[in-house]
């Protein structure tokens, strides 16, 4: 058994939840915050059998889009880069960041 932890953009969370429901994938949705942008994102915890992992990864890949976003350079990065302006910088926020964890047990009481 595996536990997938998938961090995705809020904009894709409803569509992904619908895809999970259609495919009978059980998931728990958490409201999370990205450490870099300090903006809301969504994290799904998905427990599933090993033989379903690839299918669910495919579902996530097909449903979640990468988008570019303009951000003002954080002060810490400006200092690190020796930059002196707060010009907006374009960054690419990925469609999904997914961790696949081995799971020793699954219990429901
Ligand atoms: P954030 O931490 O808010 O990061 C949003 C986007 O900002 C990242 O997109 C990346 O394009 C950029 N970014 C992040 N850290 C950066 C840095 N030190 N320097 C320059 N640019 C940086 P993604 O890489 O697609 O990540 C999307 C979200 O996935 C992240 O939101 C975070 O919540 C999560 N994430 C990404 N990698 C992670 C990891 N290794 N561990 C835990 N969470 C992760």
Bulk shape: elongated
Largest sheet: 4 strands, antiparallel
Structural class: alpha+beta
Cα(first) to Cα(last) distance is 18 Å
Bound molecules: ligand 2BA
Query: What is the topology, as strand order, of the major beta sheet?
Result: 2-3-1-6
List unreliable stretches of 5+ residues: none
**What is the highest CATH level, the class of the domain at 2-66 and 94-102?**
Alpha Beta
Secondary-structure arrangement, i.e. CATH architecture of the domain at 2-66 and 94-102: 2-Layer Sandwich
Strand content: 35-45%
- How is the CATH topology of the domain at 2-66 and 94-102 named? Alpha-Beta Plaits
Average the pLDDT over all residues and give the rounded result: 92
Total of helices: 3
Helix content: 25-40%
**Number of extended strands:** 6
Tell me the series of helices and strands, N- to C-terminal.
EHEEHEHEE
**What does the radius of gyration come to?**
17 Å
